[in-house]
Amino acid sequence: MKRAGRLMGRVLERENLREAYLRAARGKRSKPDAMAFGARLDEELARLVRDVEDGTYRVGAYRKFTIFDPKERTITAPCFRDRVLHHALMLVCEPVFERTLIDDTYACRCGKGRIAALERAFAFARSYPWYLKMDVRKYFDSIDHEVLMAKLARRFKDPRVLDLFGKIIESHQAGPGRGLPIGSLTSQHFANFYLSGLDRSIKEDLKVGGYVRYMDDLVAWGDDRAGLLVVRDHVGSFLQVELRLELKTDTPLNRVHMGMGFLGCRVYSSHVTLNRRSRRRFRRKLRWLEREHRAGRLGEAELQRRGTALVAFTQAGPTASWRLRDRVIGSSLVDDQGLEPRESRG
What we know:
Distance between the termini: 50 Å
Shape: globular
Order of helices and strands: HHHHEEHHEHHHHHEEHEEEEHHH
Mean pLDDT: 88
Largest sheet: 4 strands, antiparallel
Radius of gyration: 22 Å
Structural class: alpha+beta
Strand order of the largest sheet: 4-5-3-6
């Protein structure tokens, strides 16, 4: 594949930077750093261009916080100025990353996403009797900086873009020379790109027909258990030798009709449904939204926005979770005038 060059000029174009600012500001316009940047937008963008062009750009401080839903994770968010630069880079460089990925990689890609991944998984579940589910141990914290930069250099030849990539990658370390921050746009693309060689090895070297990856969640389907054991051994070896990563020891290998946990759902050969944890989360979050709205801490527009996003989580392609949505919404949410929702006709 031909390396991409002459990209930095496009990254620093005024229209590209303004579009990057608009994307970085979505949902964050009320934040102090976003407001300060927007109030002096032309000056801030000009300073950003100047710092990048003369090589004095430095990555700002990260903001760290912990979330506990669905599991405990430390989010390491870049400052607003860095967010703008990350968006400017990806507006130009994302097509290069896109060309390295196979069709059945679904995370952080336009036209893909969680629901599309579940639909594809359901299609494979109807076609094969066995599945193998694999996961990389502490994936984001274990990504090797040296290996990642070598892989990037084989796809990009613009030295200024590679220099910026290097500064962003080296600004966070979970261990010596390792780790990408969860919560950064560039990290999502770097992490997705890092496993692209493994995808192609599984598809081209092992000729695996049924395969789906969502970031570091990998699933392969096959006609028998023995063939999938070969896949598991190959993946473990590739991760260790080529990428300096480890495969988790817990790799479920079972018959499809027993059901497989994937992306908050349970995938069977006949249907897809939310798993138990996701059902509990849906009920808990929806009732919290109702309480906040009734207490006056959440406006109607924000309730609708958050409620729509929450309900969308249950719409996992062929899932039958409309029953859950109707049951929870019908027992919980009542409009301001006290009108009870009618029973759904399905």
